[in-house]
Amino acid sequence: MASESGNAPRLASLDGMRGVAIAIVMLGHASGSDGGPHWAAQLLRFFPASVGVQIFFTISGFIITHLLIREHEATGRVRLNQFWLRRAIRILPPLFTVLLTLSILAQGGWIQVSSLSQWASVFFFRNHVSSGGWFNGHLWSLSVEEQFYLCWPLLMVWILSHRSVAGFGLTIGFAVLARLLFLLTGMGNWATYSLAGNLDGLVIGAWAALHLGGRAAWPENLMRHIARWWLLLLPLVAIANFSTSTRFALWASPVQPTMIALMTAAIIRAELVHSTTILHRVLNSKWLSFLGRISYSVYLWQQLFLCPLGAWFTSVTWFAAVPWNIALSLTVGWLSWRLVEVPCLALRSKFSKLS
């Protein structure tokens, strides 16, 4: 969920794509809150909030791999300790601010969060704690990302010492098969929330970055066609999304995340090559780009406001009703970005000119 900035040049359209992703997540959560519009609930049958998370995974896999490649090209090596330090400075302060706020509210009797889920959020295994309450439940996706960030740089050290690397197709196939096996064995939570169940989205993003850097081949014609005809392919994606909540879920759920990841990666690659399309102008619009820049903080805070009716232990819940909860999510997210994220980015830049 967390974007990279600091001294690194911003890549075309990625902020806009993050803006699209966080908008989908917010719409999904707002539809289940007090005053949520009926039309949103119907739309989300075809484009659920999970689609936004899947887009984030692919973007994250791409940008982290891109930064590791840049560091290797500039210095001839990857400094793992510096990489993990930059990630900690980037991720932890905004996260701990939210978790501290949740603990204070829970102690005051306003909300309910379990100690286990709080510690699981701190140490990034929230995706394997099924209970704990609504307010930190969304941090499962951050846990998946951080588990990937712990393992992937170690593999990148080997990958970057070779001119090219294969095996991405096998990795994607492994993720699809893992989701199918999880579903067949009654482990639906693992299919949805585990690193293995979401590995293809992250790896497809990484694959796009390695291909851009000339270090991996990928199906160029297929990806070009996906990027060119993405609008016409949306109905097919919508059908796959819808099917995951029907009796066809066993067959749709294993392949649906891969479809989202391939489309996202294809658009990322096309956007970095071509900058004259209508989609490019939309993704680089002022407000969508800004929403993408603050998306990490908005993601962290929105769960506090975009919550189901009754989540707060108080009779005064106007702040958790549409449209106030949307406005507060964006406002508090912006404040977190301005007061916590921006200073941390400045601090992180002292550790590396590539951060």
Q: How would you describe this structure in keywords?
A:
mainly alpha, globular, 17 helices
Please describe what this structure looks like:
68% of the residues lie in helices and 0% in strands. With 355 residues, the protein is mainly α. It has one domain (14-348). The model has no long low-confidence stretch (mean pLDDT 91).
Distance between the termini: 17 Å
Number of helices: 17
Mean pLDDT: 91
Largest sheet: none
Helix content: 55-70%
Shape estimate: globular
Radius of gyration: 20 Å
Count the strands? 0
> H/E element string?
HHHHHHHHHHHHHHHHH
- pLDDT < 50 stretches: none
Number of domains: 1
Q: What percentage of the residues does DSSP assign to strands (E)?
A: under 5%
Class by alpha and beta content: mainly alpha
What layout of secondary structure does this protein have?
Blueprint: H1 14-31, H2 38-43, H3 49-75, H4 80-107, H5 115-122, H6 140-159, H7 168-184, H8 188-193, H9 195-212, H10 220-228, H11 230-243, H12 249-252, H13 256-273, H14 278-283, H15 286-293, H16 295-305, H17 324-348
Report a brief summary of the structure.
This protein has 355 residues and is mostly helical.
